[in-house]
Design a protein that fits this description.
Keywords: Lipid biosynthesis, Lipid metabolism, NADP, Oxidoreductase. This is Fatty acyl-CoA reductase. It catalyses: a long-chain fatty acyl-CoA + 2 NADPH + 2 H(+) = a long-chain primary fatty alcohol + 2 NADP(+) + CoA. This protein is of the alpha/beta class. The protein contains 20 helices and 22 strands. It has a six-stranded mixed beta sheet, with helices on both faces. Helix 1 crosses helix 13 (about 400-415), helix 7 (about 215-230) packs parallel to helix 11 (about 325-340) and helix 14 crosses helix 20. The longest helix has 29 residues, at about 495-525.
Length: about 575
């Protein structure tokens, strides 16, 4: 079996080709040996990559086989001793078997991703597409940012002194770039991958909300086009999967269903009344948007380029009904995939806000500050006592491992069926298990009240209850009062005027930073959409009880009080803060 995974950023984009011996099946119960592949990227990028896994029960597999046999691809499914094997053209496993192995990824933070590999000895090669000067530089990054990390400690323990040689026999760094039309691959490597690949997963994204328009378009919109073009050369391809975000739904409100975007579709166009003449409806031309960004970039001076291109992205996004450049360019990427796919089966995965793991590889694992985490950390350190947010609004959060498991289930289902259609899955909690902001604020207070951070002198930092503001004016006034009081500016003003002026400058900068953070988050802290996940729930229905226990993604079962106070915040303090600010 071959599986190709692309995960790009401005600096590193792993292409993973997993080869599995044809004569071996996959048992869901075999989970003894696994590793985590973490690929550190540059810039603000978010990546979650997936695989092809046998998460269907024998009965569900039989149903999938029946469905697959009715397609033009003529696939058959063989289920033996708990293993699931996909054999093209009805051939037996020994003749032409494709073992559906457990290659389980774990989504990382804004600057990296992780891939957990179960049954590692059965994986042949994993090719990592890395943006580097040469092969030596790519190998250096592979060792420093993946192999020699603490997340591989279980595998290190298993293989001992042979760990390095084992990893280098599996992981192959390849110099390339997903933003290039040919992915930056040399002819020989491209040909090898095209011959072997069964499943392509693209999770490349630049997630900076106000990124430069040209930069975001290059990764979020043009990147999927390059990958879909490459997929047309893959002779054994069973499935193309795009990892997107639930927030591509833009400024839609109410219950938002799991449906794909069509080329040229806009959110603002949906909001027009039916009597509006067709000629007045906003029509999105993606090629013209790319041309606009390119021409605007050429016309700008270097010192004005960044801010102007950021402003252009936000302007174009809001004109068509999206809140920022990130989700707008991701939505256009989905549109391009649908328009280019032809007979290629496509699955779109749309997780909401991905946070720390629920159970696997261990509870609370994460890297880097996720969406709500800067606020949590500032609050715990006594630097932020309130925020701009709708107290009765909902923060749609899902643990990373649940996103991974849902991805695996979707791959197993549609990789077997091989129907040339497009399916959308939203992994989200806002409909079935909403986390309300005022409840989140209470949980933060309870955690830090019971387990406070400490200052550099080891003294506990006591925090007040978090105040929630739905007015920018009230929030700004609170920020200034709180900052002045916390830094003793009024007391300093009466005793040392010169020092007081310096302190005032520091306070104003602190307030401006908090206001900037609130402005960026405002479209999400006042978001009125709720993501339906009916398709995702139906994936669970075709899994056995044992499979749901091992590969569960039931967001409705999450106890937010336990997850926030006992899993997420401790994980944030342990894995992101590295224990800083914790009692010795």
């Amino acid at each position: 079996m071959g599986a190709l995974f692309l995960n790009s950023s401005s600096s590193i984009s792993p292409v993973v080709l997993a080869r599995v011996p044809e004569k071996r099946g996959c048992s869901l119960s075999r989970r003894n040996n696994f590793s985590l592949v973490r690929c550190q990227g540059g810039g603000n990028v978010i990546k979650t990559i997936g695989s092809f896994s046998s998460v269907l029960s024998p009965r569900a597999a039989a149903a999938a086989a029946s469905s697959a046999m009715s397609t033009d691809h003529g696939a058959a499914v063989v289920v033996e001793n708990g293993s699931l094997v996909l054999s093209p053209n009805g051939k037996t496993q020994a003749e032409n078997g494709i073992a559906v192995k457990e290659l389980v990824p774990y989504g990382g933070s804004q600057s990296n991703s992780s891939l957990e590999m179960h049954d590692v000895p059965d994986v042949g090669k994993i090719y990592l597409l890395i943006k580097a000067k040469n092969k030596e530089a790519a190998m250096g990054r592979l060792k420093n940012e993946i192999i020699n990390t603490e997340l591989f400690k279980r595998l290190q323990k298993t293989y001992g002194k042979s760990y390095q040689s084992f990893m280098l026999s599996k992981l192959v760094p390849v110099v390339g770039n997903v933003c290039e039309s040919d992915l930056g691959l040399s002819g020989d490597i491209a040909e090898t991958i095209a011959k072997e690949v069964d499943v392509i997963v693209n999770s490349a994204a630049n997630t900076t909300f106000d990124e430069r328009y040209d930069v975001a378009l290059a990764i979020n919109t043009k990147g999927p086009c390059h990958l879909m073009n490459f997929s047309k050369n893959c002779k054994k391809l069973k499935l193309f999967m795009q990892v997107s975000t639930a927030y591509v739904n833009g400024q839609r409100q109410g219950k938002i269903m799991e449906k794909p975007f069509r080329i040229g579709e806009t959110i603002s166009g949906e909001n027009f009344v039916s009597e509006t003449p067709p000629g007045l409806l906003p029509i999105l031309d993606i090629e013209k948007e790319i041309e606009l960004a390119f021409n605007s970039k050429e016309d700008l001076e270097n010192n004005a380029l960044t801010q102007k291109m950021k402003g252009l992205g936000l302007e174009r996004a809001q004109q068509y009904g999206w809140q920022d450049t990130y989700v707008f360019t991701k939505a256009m990427g989905e549109m391009m995939i649908d328009s280019m796919r032809g007979d290629v089966p496509v699955v779109i995965m749309r997780p909401s806000v991905i946070e720390s793991t629920f159970k696997e590889p261990f509870p609370g694992w994460m890297e880097g500050n996720r969406m709500m985490d800067p606020i949590i950390l500032y609050y715990g350190k006594g630097q932020l006592s309130g925020f701009l947010v709708d107290p009765n609004g909902v923060l749609d959060v899902v643990p990373a491992d649940m996103v991974v498991n849902a991805t695996l289930a979707a791959m197993a289902k549609h990789g077997l069926a091989q129907k040339p259609d497009i399916n959308v899955y939203q992994i989200a909690s806002s409909v079935v298990n909403p986390l309300v902001f005022h409840d989140l604020a209470r949980l933060l207070y309870e955690h830090y009240n019971n387990s406070p951070c400490v200052d550099p002198n080891g003294r506990p930092i006591h925090v007040p209850s978090m105040k929630l503001f739905n007015s920018k004016e009230d929030f700004s006034e609170h920020l200034w009062r709180d900052t002045v009081q916390r830094n003793g500016l009024l007391t300093m003003a009466s005793s040392n005027k010169k020092l007081s002026q310096k302190l005032e400058i520091i306070c104003r900068k602190s307030v401006e930073q908090a206001k900037h953070l609130a402005n960026i988050y405002e479209p999400y802290t006042f978001y009125n959409g709720r993501f339906d996940n009916s398709n995702t729930q139906r994936l669970m229905d075709i899994m056995s009880e044992e499979e749901r226990r091992k590969f569960g993604f039931d967001v409705e079962s999450i106890d937010w009080s336990d997850y926030i106070t006992n899993v997420h915040i401790p994980g944030l303090r342990r894995h992101v803060m590295k224990g800083r600010g914790m009692p010795s």
